[in-house]
Design a protein that fits this description.
Layout: E1 8-12, H1 17-30, E2 33-40, H2 47-57, E3 61-66, H3 68-81, H4 98-112, E4 116-118, H5 127-138, E5 143-145, H6 156-165, E6 179-182, E7 187-190, E8 220-227, E9 230-234, E10 237-238, H7 241-254, E11 259-265, E12 271-277, H8 279-295, H9 298-317, H10 323-335, E13 341-348, E14 351-358, H11 366-369, H12 381-405
Parallel strand pairs: 1-2, 1-4, 2-3, 4-5
Antiparallel strand pairs: 6-7, 7-12, 8-9, 8-13, 9-10, 11-12, 13-14
Helix pairs in contact: 1-6, 3-7, 4-5, 7-8, 9-10
């Protein structure tokens, strides 16, 4: 197959088997220059080794950039302000990382004068959509190379053979029992032994959390301070966004908080079983909702909540840079202006429970809510409220009875 001439490509590079093979394949297939880009989103890898490997495989230049603070401040925190949860369970840790990587790729492509970008996502998954929607939203003219949709290789075994042919270091000679994708917000696990939705994930796969059964018998109480919907301090200590999230990851992990096992609906149409660990994100999600219960107007809260599934779906599908996501984000952030205060949560054997909340912007009034004697609320007023609320129900019933009698 003859390929259109490409001069330079910026490749999203992880250092793993797939992207290392892709790097070499791009060189061989397109006879072009390849610039590798690795984003540090808190995956905990030896990024110096990643850079050295990319150069050894044939990259002309390698960018390794620490984007952890940007990732949390400009992507994770806005998503948490919107309480995004996909299909009621998934906190979108992989989904939210892709737009940032793709955005930086486009910026580097423009800086380097590259005419193409490339990624290692397969033709079956969501990531190809997330990467490419971002590419096209930010630079519609850029050429996109998706090797998994072009080459003839179909299995990990064939990739290993290709790597061996070109002297690319391979750390394992057989497929892992599952695949992982870590960042500062979560770790995902899928494929291999997890493809049977009836089989429980083995406990040894988990990297961030202890088993709830093995978690401490004594609960841990944590206080999180918020300003306008964003967490700014833990137990009275102010922290940067990335530092705060890493700290809560550790605390939540010690108590087994944040494990999720679900079968999700991929954007491309198939169902997929995924297992996730999101300890810090789980804590922040619960704490944020706890503070909102105190500070948000009822109708604002209910209207916003009705839009969360759509907002989460947009992030999951890859529409971070779409106008509808921006519109919803603007509305959600407007609602966060009064979401300031402190939340106390209890971490205990896999659970995260809100046990206290306080705020100078609270709408909770004890003089109205109390079951003790009060002067602020006239209980007899409720009768008229109920009668008017029930009027349409009564009319409907009367109509039915009239029809039956006739």
């Amino acid at each position: 197959m003859k390929h259109r001439k490409i001069n330079k490509v910026v490749l999203a590079y992880s250092g793993g088997l797939d992207t290392s093979v892709i790097l070499r394949w791009l060189l061989e297939t397109y006879d072009c220059t390849v610039v590798a880009f690795c984003a540090d989103l808190g995956q905990g890898e030896d990024l110096k080794a990643v850079k050295a490997k990319a150069l050894a495989v044939g990259a002309s230049k390698v960018y390794v950039e620490d984007l952890r603070e940007t990732f949390v401040k400009d992507h994770v925190f806005p998503m948490l302000r919107g309480n995004a949860v996909y299909e009621g369970t998934y906190l979108l840790g992989t989904s939210i990382a892709r737009p940032l990587i793709a955005k930086r790729q486009i910026e580097l492509a423009q800086k380097e004068g590259a005419d193409a970008v490339s990624h290692g996502a397969t033709g079956k998954g969501n990531d190809q959509v997330r990467f490419e929607l971002t590419y096209m939203a930010l630079d519609p003219r850029v050429r996109i190379i998706a090797p998994w949709r072009e080459w003839t290789m179909k299995s990990r075994r064939e990739l290993i053979e290709y790597a061996e042919k070109y002297g690319i270091p391979v750390t394992a000679t057989k497929a892992k029992p599952y695949s992982t994708d870590p960042n500062l917000f979560h770790i995902s696990y899928e494929g291999g032994i997890l493809e049977d939705p009836w089989a429980a994930p083995p406990d040894e796969i988990f990297q961030l959390t202890v088993s709830p059964e093995k978690a401490p018998n004594k609960p841990r109480f944590v206080e999180i301070e918020y300003q306008k919907g964003d967490p700014v301090a833990v137990d009275g200590k102010r922290m940067s966004p990335a530092t705060l999230l890493a700290h809560l990851n550790r605390l939540g992990g010690e108590h087994g908080v944040g494990r999720v096992d679900l079968v999700e609906n991929r954007y491309v149409g198939m169902k997929s079983r995924g297992v996730y660990e999101t300890p810090g994100g789980t804590i922040l999600h619960a704490a944020h909702r706890g503070l909102e219960s105190l500070t948000l107007d009822r109708e604002v809260l209910h209207l916003r909540d009705s839009l969360i599934p759509r907002y989460a779906e947009l992030i999951y599908y890859g529409y971070w840079y779409a106008p509808e996501r921006t519109m919803l984000q603007t509305a959600f952030d407007e609602a966060q202006k009064d979401v300031s205060g402190t939340v106390r949560v209890k971490l205990y054997k896999g659970s995260c429970t809100v046990v206290g909340r306080k705020s100078d912007r609270s709408l909770y009034r004890l003089d109205l809510a109390t079951f003790e004697e009060d002067e602020a609320y006239r209980q007899k007023d409720a009768e008229g409220f109920i009668r008017l609320s029930a009027l349409r129900l009564a009319i409907r019933t009367q109509r039915t009875k009239k029809k039956r009698s006739s």
